[in-house]
Amino acid sequence: MAHDSHDSGPDAGSLYKEYPVFQSPGANAKIWRYCDLAKFVCLLSRRGLYFPLAACLDDPFEGVLPRILASLVPRDVLPVLAKSRLTTFVNCWHLNEYESAGMWQLYSRMKEGLAIQSTFARLTSSFLGFSLVPADLVPPS
User: Fold this and answer.
1) CB 38 within 8 A of CB 110
2) 108-140: b or e for each residue (b if 16 or more CB lie within 10 Å)?
């Protein structure tokens, strides 16, 4: 779903876009963000989510095109997509009705972690009015 300056709905000015090839989990779908205490404190103090490069994540498959989708992409495009981990910023959430023991083990260090439970609608609505440049980096006018 593309937006322009004439949009007046609830998504006007949002960086979140829907694409027909990706199925939305639904507005009320439960999502979880597992993190250690340091990342949670950073989230609170900066009042925003951190989006590292996909290439900086511990999982080498994070941000890689799944094989089934790669089979649908023209072969000459695949090398370009392979480099996308160097230009793609991510913030990972887990879609599940309940907490996951496996996710606790993966994403909380030294048993000092927490899980944030939200919904898909609340996450996507958080992109309304979002700026690509943090307020503390904007020069005074």
Assistant:
1) no
2) beeeebebeeeebbebbeeeeeeeeeeeeeeee
Quote the pTM value. Answer: 0.69
Cα 25 to the chain's mean position, in Å?
A: 14
Task: Give the DSSP H/E element, type plus range, for residue 79.
Answer: helix 78-82
- Per-residue pLDDT tens, the chain, 141 aa: give them: 333 333 333 444 567 888 887 889 999 999 999 988 888 999 999 888 888 888 898 888 777 778 888 888 898 888 888 888 888 888 889 999 998 888 888 777 667 788 999 999 999 988 877 666 666 776 776
What is 109-128 written as a DSSP string?
GGG-EEEEEEEHHHHHHTTB
| Main-chain dihedrals φ then ψ at residue 80, nearest 5 degrees | -65, -45
Residue 111 φ/ψ region, left for φ over 0, alpha for ψ in the -120 to 50 degree band, beta for the rest: left
Task: Give SS3 for 95.
Answer: strand
Cβ neighbors of 129 (< 8 A, separation 6 or more) are 13
In terms of Cα–Cα distance, which of 73, 101, 93, 121 is closest to 31? 93
